[in-house]
Amino acid sequence: MHQNLRRAERTTLATFSIMVSHYDLKERLQYHAGREVEGAIMLEFMASDRLSDMLDDFDALRRGRISERVLGAGGDERIGDPSRAPAGCGLFHGITFAPYDLEDGGAARWDEIREEMGDQSLRHYQRFVKDLTADNIVRRTIVTPLDHARNMPTSMPGGDVHGIAPYFYQTAGHRPTPDLAQFTVPGVERLYLVGPFMHPGGGVYGAGRATAIRVFDDLNIDFEKVVAARS
Q1: Among 156, 178, 215, 223, whose Cα sits 20 to 30 Å from the Cα of 139?
Q2: Domain residue spans in the chain?
Q3: How many CB atoms within 10 Å of residue 227?
């Protein structure tokens, strides 16, 4: 057990995190690119068309610096789940890559600069989103890398939204470690693991489903049969 713990403690966190901007809108999103992109739940908002610029920006994040160009993405999550907004209204979910441990002031400085960073990201989003404007915005909520670490200290340590970095040596049967990759804790009966640090990783890939399948298998219950009966 102690060896499993030591290996888990040696896993590698990502060198950057994300700052999330949630916007409640009076009306649905409209993009400058036109209606052909309105069906996308998430779009990448490129600040440059040069790969060298992007590499420079990610290098800055690795060093704890906020990049001059915003590395951002966003979209309308109401498309996948209309209940997320009242009928006729809209929402915008924006993501900006950012360091957790800032070179100037460390992670604690996020409480000071959250709205400033929110404004910087908003200006970038507005280059792509037509109606992300003051007259359409009802409310904005900023969630910083420090907030991620506070809200989910075991699932997102250091603000790592994948729990641990999705490097090749920390994927599949090595996620989070070879000892813990089977969604259970060796030596502890009926203790299962679920979270972004498990295969396949991240908070949007249905990692809980894989753990549920393992639980069903251990209980000799046909998972597919149960799912089919409920659908």
Answers
A1: 156
A2: 17-151, 164-230
A3: 13
| Average confidence (pLDDT) over 180-206 | 85
Strands 137-143 and 43-45: unpaired
Asked if 64 contacts 158 with a C-beta cutoff of 8 angstroms, the reply is: no
φ/ψ of residue 21, rounded to 5: -115, 120
d(Cα 61, Cα 198) in Å, to the nearest integer? 25
Other Cβ atoms closer than 10 A to 130: 13
Q: Please state, as a whole number, how many other Cβ atoms lie within 10 Å of the Cβ of residue 48.
A: 12
Query: Using one digit for the tens of pLDDT, what is the confidence trace for 194-212?
Result: 889 998 887 666 668 889 9
CB 99 within 8 A of CB 17: yes
Q: Check if the beta carbon of residue 161 is closer than 8 Å to that of residue 20.
A: no
Q: What is the DSSP string of 21-32?
A: EEEEESS---BT
Q: Name which of 15, 18, 61, 14 is nearest 147 in CA terms.
A: 18
Q: And the tokens for 143?
A: 């969630």
Using only C-alpha atoms, the chain has a radius of gyration, in whole angstroms, of: 20
Residue 208, CA atoms < 13 Å, CB-side half-sphere? 3
Predicted model pTM: 0.87
Residue that wins the pLDDT comparison between 1 and 43: 43
Given a contact cutoff of 8 angstroms between Cβ atoms, the answer to whether 161 and 202 are in contact is yes
Closest by CA position to 20, among listed 153, 197, 203 = 203
